[in-house]
Design a protein that fits this description.
About 50% of the residues lie in helices and about 15% in strands. The protein has 5 helices and 5 strands.
Length: about 160
Amino acid sequence: MAEKKAAKKATAKKATATEYTGLTEEERAAMKNRTQELKAEARRGKGAKVDEEGALLEKLAEMDEADRVMGERIHEIVKAAAPTLTPKLWYGMPAYAKNGKIIVFYQPAAKFKARYATLGFNDDAKLDDGAMWPTAFALMELTAADEARIAELVKKAAG
């Protein structure tokens, strides 16, 4: 009988060790950022003026140099290509919204300890191209051609 209990405990420990353990530390931090953003929006109320762009620029300033330089350049490109988009933070990342819905976002490499940054588009972006099209792009650096492509995508996404 004692042998059966010991075997059952060993099996339970083995199963626990391989089970999903939840969100990573970085994912929890992103969720915490989003919760804080939503609470701040609720406290402000509708129609209240707030410096969303200032908050975005502050977040960019906190990033490591490579992510910051790329993020600042993307910010300039988005503002020039689609001046109607509203800069804001989304899960602690720079993002740009149309009618309150996030259209495009910049995910710095350090955010989730990735080897590259990401420029992403949500489903409200008007990027439809047939039955399949990309909604996220890996960024290692920005060339003049990359910047032109980003401007074109953002313009199209903003509708």
